[in-house]
Amino acid sequence: MAADSGRCGAGQLVDKYGSALFRFCLVMLRNAADAEDAVQETLLRYIERSPEFESAGAERAWLFTVAANRCRDTLRAASRHPQLTLDELAGLGAEKSELGILDALMNLPEKYRLALTLHYVEGYSTGEIASMLGRTPSAIKMRLKKGRELLGKEIFDGE
Description:
Blueprint: H1 10-29, H2 32-49, H3 56-76, H4 86-91, H5 96-106, H6 110-121, H7 126-133, H8 137-157
C-alpha cells in the first residue's frame, strides 16, 4: 500500500503509469527496447528522487517530462536498434486500424511527434505541454497545427 503522502510504491507506479509511458516512449523512439529502457529509467528516477507532488496530475506531468527528456537523450545517441516496422507494431498489440496512423506519426520530426502524442494520445493541454517542454503555449499550438498538417500529408500521400 502507498504511504499516507499519496506517493505510489514501485508496483503501483508501474500499474498506474507504465502502459501510458511505454506508449509515449514507443512513439517517440520507434523502438520497443529503447522505449522499455526509457520507461525503466523514468520510473527509477522517480524512486531515487522521491519527489512530492500536490496532485496526481502533477505527478503524471513530471513522469512524462522525465520520459520525454530520456527519449530525447536516446534519440541524440547513436542509433542502437532499427526502427519498428508495421509488423512489429502489430505484434506489440496495436490494432490494424491504428497501424497507419502510428506509422505516420512515427515518421514525423520529433518536435511535432512529441506535441501530437502528448496532446492527442495523453490528453495534455497546450499549456501543460508548454510547461513540460519549456516552450510557450503559442509555440505548442503551432507545433500541433504543423504536426497535423504533416500527419495528414503522411497519411494521404502514403496511400
